[in-house]
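pinning this so it doesn't scroll away 📌
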Amino acid sequence: MEPAVRAQFTDEVHARVARAVGVEPADLVSLGGFESYVHETLLDGTPRIVRSMWHQRRTPEEIGAELHFVGALADQGVPACRALPLTNGALLTTVPSDGGAFHVCCFEKAPGGVLEREAWTEETFEIWGALAGQMHRVGMAYGGPPAPMHRPTWQEEYAAIQAIVEDDAPYRDALSNLLGRLEELPQTPDTFGPMHTDLHRHNLYWHEGTPRVFDFDDMLDFWFVADLAIILYYAVMNPIWHADDAQADYDRVKAATLRGYRREHTLPETALDTLPVFLDLREHTLHAVILRSILPEERSDSMRRYMAETEARIRAGAPALGLEP
């Protein structure tokens, strides 16, 4: 969370968020948050998740589009956590702070929890891939939200990422090159549409072997292969089965994820050939967002190591995570 935004989430703002949800401030238990404040609470004895998003990150119309899409996915059987009404009966409300405002939503809480890496198997990635394929298949038939709701464009989203690295020529130029390659890709109904865009392990809870997905605040109309790249990228950032061979982990994860994905949706091979582009894009994006959101002194040892490694790869023009995808 950017320091300037943290300073806005005062005790008074915390109390306003609680009132919007219909609970006492002490009943909002912090779950942290990277780009929004996230709390858990009990409402009428049922667990709920409360998200408070700084107003400069998303407009109400953009958040409304996100919530509409999640509801449409859930209506079609996708295991996604719906938004729930606040005390004013709406799915979204805005509470003021001294220097801005926070947009507040309440969601279903998925049962279970994050599946730890030690429990991952190839079957895990088959199920994960099938979930991505199901979302893409359903998303292809999604007609979009009613006006004035609208999703940000991918160009708008990545312009904000570019702005973070504008003053560092190697980062800026490498990212500009990647985005130029995206502009050349075809946008067909089976390869491009509304999607999650942040499908890493912390945005899934698993219960009795079944995942449920949440945190759609990054959703875009984008190339579906990017969701697969995100699964793969975060999966192999650290060893799974091969302590000294990230490539071997990647090859196994990719094969299993695609087996599951193809049960629900089929991407043309030409789309899958672009996986390296989207792996590189994720590396650039994560590096930039950490630069923006987490002060150097607040980074863990593993995060510092990651930032040093990504900096070296980006400056050298090497592939994401040093892989041959």
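📌 and the second one:
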Amino acid sequence: MNFRGRYKTENPGFQIAPMIDIVFLLLCFFVATQIFSQWEMSIDVQLPTAQSGEVPDRLPGEIIINVMDDGAIVVNQQRLNDESLSALLGRIVGLFPGQPILIRADKSTAYEHVIRVLDLCRKVDIWNISFATTAVNTTS
């Protein structure tokens, strides 16, 4: 009794379903980890302290504007002047109304530099603005 001769096994060929699964999982991984690449916590900005300071949940697509102690503005690790920041914010608001902005100002930054950034945000109709602080260490 030769059972092998009756049934011929065919080569299954290239399986597309597992390939689609792997590509989908890679896409999910890169989308999930992409938000961590946008956090600009490595820039040397000494944040002011506040009693109610806490680390809020990050909003998706939140733009971080760093105001250095000399008044320089850094966004995505690029120094921008007032005109280029205004143009960037104008393009973003045109695409995404209600875009959240986080302003990280150094604690030794003059108040006028922070107001200058706020004024630029207001001119392009950005209203969803938050400020970064650190919590006061009360364990001492």
